[in-house]
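Dear colleagues,

I hope this message finds you well. In preparation for our joint manuscript, I am sending the MrfA-like Zn-binding domain-containing protein (Candidatus Kentrum sp. LPFa) sequence together with its predicted structure, so that both groups work from identical material. I would be grateful if you could confirm receipt.
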Amino acid sequence: MGRFIGYLLGLSIVGIGTAWIVFVLFGWPTLRWTQLGSGLILIAVGLAIFCHLQVTHRKIDAGPVWASTLSITLWVMLPLLFGSYMLQWIYPPWWNTGGHLLPDLVGPKYIIQTLLVLGFPVLPWLSALLWRSLRGWKDRESAHESGHWIVGAIAQHDTSGSRLWVAWFSLIPFLVMLGTVDQLGGIVSPYPLAIWSTLGLVSISLIGIALSKPLSPEDAVIQPVPERQPTTTLPPWPEEMAKRGIALQLLGNCDPTHEQEKTKPQSSTFQGEVSSDRRLIDAVSSLVNSYEHHASIPMRRLIIASDDCGQAESLALTAADLNRRFGTITLVIVAADSSGYARQLGHRTDGVAAITGPDASLPEEAVICVVDAVLLSDRLLVELAQHDQAKRIGLLCWWDLHRFSGVVAANLWAIARRLKRLLDSSGRPDLRVLATIRDHANPGSQRSAFVNRLLPYEFPSETVVHVRRNCQWPVTLYRVDSTNKWIGKLQTHNIDRNLRSSDTLMTTLASVDTTWPTHMSIPPQFNALEASNFDRIRLGQTEIGKRLAHRVDAGAHILEIGNENASSILEVSRCGGRNIPTIRPHHVTLTGGLNPYANWLGEHTARGADGQGSPPPYLLLCPDEAHPSIIRRHLLRALHEREDTLSGLFRHFRWDERAIRETLETLVEKEMLFQEQVRYVDDNSRLIVESLYQNRDLPDTPGPLDTIGDSLIKLYDPEITEGDNALGWLDSERLSILGYPDRVFLRGGIRYRIADWRSYGASSKMRCSREDRLSLTCRIRRPQVRELNLRPGKGQDLLLWQGRAEYIEVVNGYRHWCPSEADVATNTFYERGSIDTRFETDVLVLGFRGEVSGQGITSLAQALRHVLPVHAGIDEDAFEVVPIYNGLPEGSGANIGLTIVDLYPGGIGIISGLGADELFVRGLLAWTVRWLEACSCNEDGACAHCLDSFTAGAIIATAPNSRGEVLRLLRPHVAGEDML
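The corresponding structure tokens are as follows:
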């Protein structure tokens, strides 16, 4: 109703102005240019009101509209007015004809000419106003840029600021108009008719800017480029894949929701790419605003969203803007592969550099620097401290925090606080902070709470941007059942047999051959040479590597299921193809990995793509208490970066004060720290006497995120004769877990096999040889727990206890499988005897009341070895599940149970995280039942799709695994569970 009244008011003013001009021309006794000018201004005011209301109704920020209108008007009128004024000296004959905007003509017979001069400025002004009101801009950033020329506030994303102060500037042209109104029609030369009306239009435009207000991200839309209809000349993808012999099974479809259509992606400023969600870009780019010390909303943003949802574009845009305005660098911290992330960001902006190598420092000309957390801890923090480079950082970005869980999170927790301590001491407590993490469908995953625990920054709700889990366009999901026919058709191409063994690679070849743009990430078991050989395969005139597309440019996505993505299939794939809206639907094809439970859960999640299925639980683990070895490691590095006192260390790290004190005393006794007394006055004017600690020598032992101590064993390549030949580092206490002889692993794109070190020992380093065959290995072991020391438990039918125990593991050999050579795996036992490991650690015990068979409990242990890493984000080598047949607390009614063991000596905090959430543990058991019930094998046995997996054959047990025994054990305990 209010908008209707406004429209009526605007049109009424236009009518009044028109009637007034007519009356002056034909009914006024004496012709007065003052009255005609007033009528013209009335018409302009009425049109301005009408257009302003129309713009705000269409959810367009009126500020840039008026700024652009004013700019166009001045660009047209100022040269014309100045040229007309100069005509009296440049070309007097033309000046005397009056054929310009400042005519020296008086009298009724010149009424038409003078009216045209008076109204001429309205033409560019009204044309610009209508053009910007109706056409708009291609994206919001372009709209904001149009306001930069007059006042920076128009370009801000802040929705709380007022622009009324611009109205003061409208008084300047208005006062000039009042001062020259007596000259309209007077005997002066030249007559300022066009100047007078131009000033009036300038004043109206400035008032329009003053009355505008930035729109909130929820209301703001970009107006409008007609949407292209999804049309494609490509052949149907499923049919083309079937013609090539790829057997696909349809799993599910994800259709766009009505809610998602209200937030359609808009064009960004990056090379024609489509930004997926405007809220995300607005939230990140708002960090460019000048920092206000007393601002109610911190200059921090936490982005919870699906992969490739626009995070990289938003970061690149913001980093470039910060560098342009303040000359600062954006530092991006990743879990690994800093070069890969740098290449990804480099496609979107210039000046991206990956920090690698021992000489870590911030490049001089860089806009964005990408560094992995290990190099940040071992080298870059020292460079920042010693060369005062911290002041160059304008934005700190913690990227993909879902990749940090368990021991990795424990180390990053300390690294993040070391960095903040350094930045605070450099005068940067107000540093802008951005964090990104993958969304998850289950609300119990508590992503915000995890980030608030992990980082030394608080992210209140107003700083969190949660891009909800909806499909923006149709997505169809499939499973690969067979590639055998297609492999047969490729016999003439002489493809490496290692490559032929991968369904992921063979399906990708078929998809590329259909001419569909296809995305695929090389599976982690292939080395750099094999990946290069795959890229050089030719199906036609062009190599496969040159035909693969980035995920956002792909119409088909071949995705191998792993522990890290099985519960988040849609979050990984739903934004694929967002740059090619003419190719729909987006096809996602799943291929299986080594974990049978992950394969089933990935397919189950894909079948629930319509949102009808219950989301699986997921828990990212951030230890509440630091491991003593982690405290020692990071205190040594922190005190080398900057000396400090006990109170200062406690203030920054918030570790247990007693643990910090004892660690410092031990390091001083070993002469690893220098100590001196200092006196200072605290904030309460009290004299404080404390010890100041300093480490003058940089620790020469690296600190990989998956290790905890300083006593590390080096894996090295003897073929590397120049530079550092280290391949990795292992905790000495975990030597048999990750350093057993003949273990095969990849490092730096090369596949290695650990030599048998038992003849010479492995006190400090172990030799590794290069391996050509595609081989997968795991250790053959007999795990045990002894000396259970449990705290009071909880639960009714399912009992949970946390405590401590001695873990004993006997490694007798290794299990290996070459997919390109054999269909089954084989066990190889060591001839020189077994390798024993024992240490005290944390345990979580699950006790079951009633009759429980030994076969059932050992089979359940194997099931949880598959299930737990999929839902808790921890490596399979970070825990063990061990059956126990005695030692449970008396009176509990439970005689048999399972022990989940933290495989880091002393415990890294995994157990406390799991034990604190009883619903999560029950959810694990409920999803285990779902998985095993879905398997079609004989209940009295097991198959490769459930409990007879590659890794299951590495456990020395007294009886084979039985799917039916697990179901009979768990069904009474999970009846009625809602699969939390």
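For the figure legend, we might mention the following. The first strand starts at residue 247 and ends at 254. DSSP finds 32 helices and 28 strands in the chain.

With kind regards,
E.M.
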